[in-house]
Design a protein that fits this description.
By secondary structure, this protein is an alpha+beta fold. The chain is built from six helices and four strands.
Length: 120
């Protein structure tokens, strides 16, 4: 099974999701998105696959969110995606992409649903 995780090693949710994958014998493709942000097209595709809006993926607690005034409804989806590509710290994480779907895995245990593991 090919799995991709958009990972931030400093994030506990991201580390949990990665550990759960590895515990189940899945070695995902790891994209450290802070070093290698997705293109606008790739990010738009991930959002569509998750069924969420760019605003729902934004990390509103990041200082750049306030500095850029991203809480203003004037920002279009295309503009918000461009901001996340330019400032990848604004992206919530981890995003996990599997043949069973794509999901923002917060908390990290949400990854289990994507790999077919029934949670207690």
């Amino acid at each position: 099974m090919h799995v991709t995780i958009f990972h931030n090693p400093a994030c506990s949710n991201s580390r949990t999701a990665l550990a759960l994958l590895r515990e189940r014998g899945i070695e995902p493709e790891i994209v450290e998105y802070l070093k290698t942000p997705p293109s606008a097209e790739r990010l738009a595709g991930l959002l569509a696959a998750m069924g969420i809006t760019p605003r729902e993926l934004l990390r509103s607690k990041e200082p750049q969110y306030a500095e850029l005034g991203l809480d203003d409804p004037k920002w279009t989806d295309v503009q918000l995606i461009a901001q996340m590509v330019s400032h990848p710290v604004l992206m919530n994480r981890p995003i996990v992409e599997t043949p069973h779907g794509t999901r923002l895995c917060r908390p990290g245990e949400r990854v289990l649903d994507l790999i077919g593991v029934v949670q207690p």
